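Comment thread on ticket #2218

A.B. wrote:
> Attaching the input chain for the structure job we discussed in standup.
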Amino acid sequence: PRLRIGAVLLAAGEGRRMGGVAKPLIRLQGVPLISRLLVALSGAGVDEVVVVTGHARHAIEDEVRSFVVTLAHNDAHADGQQRSVRVGLAALGGSFDAVIIVLADQPLIGASDLTELIGAFKKRPAGHVVVPVVDGRRGNPVVIDDVALARVLASDANLGCRHLIDREPGLVYAHETANTRFVTDLDTLDDVRDLALRTGWRLELPALEPTTS
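C.D. wrote:
> Ran it. Output below, let me know if you need it in another format.
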């Protein structure tokens, strides 16, 4: 049977390691990363998407205005990603069989990658969080069920923790894959340059947004 799937797209980060660049607005081949991800989520058949804003809120809201999404603002985005996860999950309407938590700085994630994760979630033998693992490296996005969702909302689980698999083996199902798109993200300006050199694609940075202290 078809699953009812929600998604939380995290677009609140301050881009501190890039000096204030709003990473969701980085353009790859002329298209902002956040728009690419929203198209991918639609293509994967996701029923509802919550976009969590924080840094560069108004610019990001303007960019997603043409998409059917729910906007949720994290006014404490400087406190870290986990607060944004909780804000996004709390803003989802109704109940879902699975929720995908997506980072807005993953430039290569497409509908087929999300479909791969949804398939892994359906077939998992155990666990409440599906995490892609590539050559021992933990990747993103992750897919969670209602048990994990309840734990996150109760501030009991940090899905962004790189050691989650080791600390919570009963909670996590590691989806072993050779798909390197799950471990490709843009944290620094060097990451942007490296991706441009590796792919030959054009990447353009948005105007800098001041970070909060």
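A.B. wrote:
> Thanks. Noting for the ticket: The first strand starts at residue 5 and ends at 11.
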